[in-house]
């Protein structure tokens, strides 16, 4: 089974699934393997559920013409995605970074899709399986594609670029995330910088936040750069007054003076500026840019503002690392309100830096007069502090219910593994 032959089949059955529970009649089923599962064992079940074909890499039934055997299913999926990508002569915008990838991706998609037929990563399908699936969802009517790339070790982004073939790139930032895999902050920059390496080698363009000095050095040698920032750039804007929702005042690059977003936190400013910059670069009318950003509603526990009775909850519990935690706490400190309560889950994947980073987090909290602070999970076990310490999100939820708070402002944040959204569920 060659990739050309597989592509002909894909064109007839362009819906691809790797999970039999999501199969629809006529889909292609790719029988992926993992540490704890073997999709080949579900191939016949997939066919019974209506799959047109099942792509496998084990001998199952040589007489079944709906079973297409390849040397390795994951490799075949990635090669198919690359071949499909090569048929599409449109801008492919790749987004990576330590923080803000998904929010930036959603904002950019909102802006571009207001004017162009635009496909993008669904949810956070941003790994070696999710990215090929995203590419195969891009149809022939596409005018733009926006692809999110996550990574926790070196050479991961470089690998994704080999089949995504991005024409444009964005590194939102390089913070202290996945230090366990990258080894150091410098390792993070090197890993995320693999996107710039591909763009540089292939004559592409990037969009970059002018305020981050390291993006200037990382982008050296890239000729086509569209800058956005708070002082300099093609698009210049800064955060407005500290209300619950971020407002942005523009001084260069667009005719409208202000945007009022539905995003919590000034740390979302670069994400908004990026979306506006991309809209301008690709000729989206300004009124559409403004409306798209102002209409965007965050979801999935990212910078959400939720009212619980008389209490205002900022739910930012999709993920956390030292950089995003610092930004969230500092933003929370300057928000209006006196009755402020924080429930913070631990930060995962920090390796040998974990204890030091959690101690620095406590030192940061010490600088502010919050009414109550609850630290949640094992990562705080050996950290000296005078705050409430609870074992998990369920215990934190029980504590919060017992407080019977009224007219309070509450920040809930933590790493994905902590499932801090349970605190208010």
UniProtKB/TrEMBL annotation:
This is UDP-N-acetylmuramoyl-tripeptide--D-alanyl-D-alanine ligase. Its EC number is 6.3.2.10. Residues 16-84 form the Mur ligase N-terminal catalytic domain. Belongs to the MurCDEF family. MurF subfamily. The keyword Ligase applies. The keyword Oxidoreductase does not apply. The gene is murF. It is found in: Cytoplasm. GO terms for biological process: cell division; cell wall organization; peptidoglycan biosynthetic process; regulation of cell shape. InterPro entries: Mur-like_cat_sf, Mur_ligase_C, Mur_ligase_C_dom_sf, Mur_ligase_cen, Mur_ligase_N, MurCDEF_CellWall_CoF430Synth, MurE/MurF_N, UDP-N-AcMur_synth. Keywords: ATP-binding, Cell cycle, Cell division, Cell shape, Cell wall biogenesis/degradation, Cytoplasm, Ligase, Nucleotide-binding, Peptidoglycan synthesis. One of its GO terms (cellular component) is cytoplasm. ATP binds at residues 97-103. Gene3D superfamilies: Mur ligase, C-terminal domain (3.90.190.20), Mur-like, catalytic domain (3.40.1190.10), MurE/MurF, N-terminal domain (3.40.1390.10).
